[in-house]
Specification:
single chain; 31% helix; 17 strands; 6-stranded mixed beta sheet
Length: 469
């Protein structure tokens, strides 16, 4: 059975949560989408990039956007770039949820940005968050002074007043489009085998790598817009941000993640949360794009990330960024691939794409490589061809002796794809040494064209009926 398609976001009404830092915008976002999707910490400025999700309010889906806190700052500074990203989201909103902190009262920043919001000529719903108890309710009344209409007091953290908020959002949304009834069509023909292995939903891609490798710049270039905050400062991306991108006949759900550093250097609680979010995003991916700074070569932390990708069983594409700054490209590519093949045999044959995310040169090669890696990750080998190859491998190199007795390996089958997983059956097959497993895995990779994806090889022993006689 095909999985149900995801809710399309293209035609959904856009609701943007805006306000100064630390008023609870991300907590409200999580509450409305129904899960902890945005990173939340008791620290101002946690959210830097816009985060999107789909929320259901009174039976209607909306595209909900969480933004960075609005702050006065120079345009070229980090906070200036964060504000520009938030302003860009507000300009496409069908409804703005302008949040203030009821416990803190009205601040000069609230007044300043309330005036700015009024000039956007967009419908606005004023939210007085953190309005728990009598004191919070009384403080919410001060928000009338902002001139944005009746404030709605609620507590996003505890869920108080969120039901009323959903009603208010639903009433302010633009009218729902009424689609004309489609003509009755004849049943579609059966899909061919080649079409069956195409993604039935968005192909899930996660971009991983060390800080400052150019992950967010790459995503911006793919999208053709400044969707992610970028700059020379390392570690700008804190949360995992998902976007949807259409390329030809395929749809990609691409997640940009925070840079992964050595464990010894991760000491702040917020950074630990960022790393945890990155790893969770990788677990949900089908293909991981490992971005390396080609001018620096392969770092030990890059190998650790590659091992994590292999351990999670994901397909991988190696993305060598800043390729325009590499002088000896042939030697650089060889050094990187040699280091990977020596340190991580499971990544042998991994597809490599070289580009410059900053200039956009050759970035168009990435998504086709991702699509090809996904196809290999989903590959299935016919049982007949698999066992003919298996017999040849046994003749070429006999199974080893274990405790003075030779293993009797009988047959092999593929039990699953994503990643390709095979089981060898035979007497005492579970005692097969690792070097013989590597011999079989390398043979599988070469014979059936399975480059760059993890291959799982399991063993199942069969009982000898005369063993106890």
């Amino acid at each position: 059975m095909r999985p149900l398609p995801p809710v399309p976001t293209g035609d959904l009404p856009v609701v943007v949560i805006a306000g100064r830092p630390n008023v609870g915008k991300s907590t409200l976002f999580n509450r409305l989408v129904g899960r902890r999707q945005a990173l939340v910490a008791d620290t101002p400025g946690v959210t830097r990039d816009r985060k999107e999700g789909v929320a259901l309010v009174r039976g209607r889906h909306i595209r909900l956007i969480d933004t960075a806190g609005l702050e006065e700052a120079a345009p070229d500074s980090l906070f200036g770039r964060m504000r520009a990203s938030s302003e860009s989201a507000v300009q496409e909103a069908d409804l703005i949820l302008f949040c203030i902190d009821a416990r803190a009262g009205i601040t000069p920043a609230d007044e300043h940005f309330a005036q700015w919001v009024r000039r956007q000529n967009r419908p606005v719903l004023l939210i007085a968050n953190k309005a728990e108890g009598r004191q919070g309710t009384a403080a919410a009344l001060e928000a009338y002074a902002l001139g944005l209409g009746d404030p709605l007091g609620l507590s996003a953290e505890h869920g108080d007043g969120v039901t009323d908020l959903m009603w208010e959002i639903a009433e302010r949304l633009p009218p729902e489009k009424v689609e004309e009834e489609e003509e009755v069509r004849a049943p579609e023909p059966e899909l061919s085998e080649e079409e069956e292995i195409r993604p039935t939903g968005p192909l899930k891609v996660t971009i991983v790598g060390r800080p400052n490798a150019g992950k967010s710049t790459l995503l911006n270039t793919l999208l053709g817009e400044e969707r992610m905050i970028t700059g020379p400062e390392p570690g700008l991306t804190r949360d995992s941000i998902a976007v949807t991108l259409h390329d030809g006949d395929d749809t990609f759900e691409i997640v940009d993640t925070a840079g992964l550093r050595k464990k010894a250097r991760i000491d702040e609680t917020l950074e630990k949360m960022s790393v945890s979010a990155s790893i969770e995003a990788l677990k949900m991916a089908e293909v991981a794009v490992l971005v390396l700074d080609a001018t620096l070569g392969v770092h030990e932390q890059d190998l650790q990330i590659a091992r994590l990708i292999e351990r999670e069983g994901r397909a991988c594409v190696l993305a060598l960024n800043k390729w325009d700054a590499v002088e000896d490209r042939t030697a650089t590519r060889k050094a990187i691939l040699d280091r990977l093949s020596i340190s991580l045999a499971q990544m042998r044959g991994v597809p490599v794409v070289t580009f410059s995310a900053l200039t956009g040169s050759a970035v168009h090669k990435l998504l086709p490589a991702v699509r090809d890696a996904w196809t290999v990750w989903n590959a299935r080998v016919p049982t007949g061809a698999l066992n003919r190859w298996f017999e040849e491998m046994l003749e070429r190199h006999q199974p080893p002796l274990v405790d003075g007795r030779r293993l009797k390996l009988r047959y092999m089958t593929q039990v699953k794809a994503r990643p390709p997983t095979f089981v060898v059956f035979g007497t005492r097959a579970e005692q097969m040494p690792d070097d013989y497993k590597r011999y079989l895995v390398n043979g599988l990779r070469e014979e059936f064209d399975l480059p760059g994806v993890p291959i799982r090889l399991q063993t199942r022993g069969t009982k000898n009926p005369y063993a106890n006689n």
